[in-house]
Specification:
Strand content: 5-15%
Number of strands: 14
Order of helices and strands: HHEEEHEEHEHHEEHEHHEHHEEHEHHEH
Length: 507
Amino acid sequence: MRLLKISFALTLSVLCVAYPQSQQQQQQQQFPFSPVHSVNGNNNNHNQDTNDGYARFDNEQVLRVQVSSMEQLKQLEATVEEKNLDLWSNLRIGTVDVRVPSAEIDAFKDAFPSTVMIPNLQDMVPEQAPALSLLQQDTTQWNFTDNSFWLNYHDLATLNNFTETMVQQYPDLVKRTSLGQTYEGREVFGLTIHGYKTGKYAQEEIEEDMEELVEEVVEEARSWWSWLFGSSPKVPASFKKPSKPKKHPKAIVIHGGQHAREWIGPATVTYIAKELILGYGKSKKITRLVNEFEFTIIPVLNADGYAYTWEHNRMWRKNRQPTSIPFCAGIDTNRNWGYMWNNGGSSGNPCSESYHGPRPFAAKEPRMVADYILEKGNVVSYIDFHAYSQLWMTPFGADCSKIPKDDEDILEAGLGAARALKDVHGTRFAVGSVCNIIYQASGGSLDWTYAVGDVKYSYAVELRDTGLHGFLLPEEEILPSGEETFAGFLHLANFIRKREKMWGYMA
């Protein structure tokens, strides 16, 4: 028996440290792994499960560390990697939120003086799997045409039902868009919203477009004339209106749920879809934008991970693909995109929450979106909605020495979106590049969409809040988040419509 135990221990040790690595990774530190109690036999989080298999987080705390130097930041990064801790916010100079298991709290506080943000995580997590609770409710009669749907979070099946219902009820406006299947066989799909100018809307919008274009061109001319000669020119009465632009709609692609536990993302994205659909023909601004653009909206990109948060573990972040370590499933899909992959701000440890995968696009989910964008070839804007921190982020994250050639337009549009968002409920969002506003993070979506996908207005948006609730944002904040984010989204789309049409890119 003693020999059997030794043999088993040696075998386990080999499994935990000998996963395949690239030459670059082989030169790096080997990551230790200690098996912990698992949920359904496959979980690398420090927790226990309930009788129904739903993970518990008793006496775990979320601590906020004030990082004031690069030396301290590197020390924190090493500790997070060594102890396999769960970062709730990105590593950066400033504040960093970390989920710490009860057994590690004292040692962590000794090493990093910190503030307790959440004293006992389990107090904020359901006692049983939310998916089981849904079995006791009638969730088939949701009304998707008013705000009642956005008073609660919803599981994957209900969100899929929302999408299918919108397609069926508005067939002339909404089309079903499928991206592919996940590792566990779930379909990733959403809807594409686009209108066609007919009847009174056509004539009204053509007239308004022409008037608006004339005003913009005249204003631009006056600005230049004033700068050159110090006075404003007279505009001839016979000023020729610009010709009607060709109708070739550009696309705007948005999604939520790339990180599974960030439930506010899918909730906000579906709210945006609802407002675009129901506002068509009622709001002139929305009607014009829906006629001008194709809006592709994917509520949940990481369908496997999102389902897992409802059925097994509320804190699950990654997808559910197997890795080289049997106990540590999942790739962080937002560290797996194929632009400057594994260039910092991610981990080569399969047990890490920010595991970047064995190679670029090893995860199915980012590959789906990348293929979709490349195939369309007409995507002018992309937004990846996350939580939390209230940030409207621009490229780049992988290379902090690089500035986008379109940085002025991208920042101007983002700043305007943040202002429009703030006007609704007073919520403040910081705007800037990933590198400047948080810290280096490679393999992210917006870097790839901008640099490879040729999507000029590429953003990653971190929604509410700033850490009081973190990923467990209360349901009463869903609707306000949707309302303010939609206002920012509308401003962004309208900015793109005006700016790119003015310079001829929308033709």
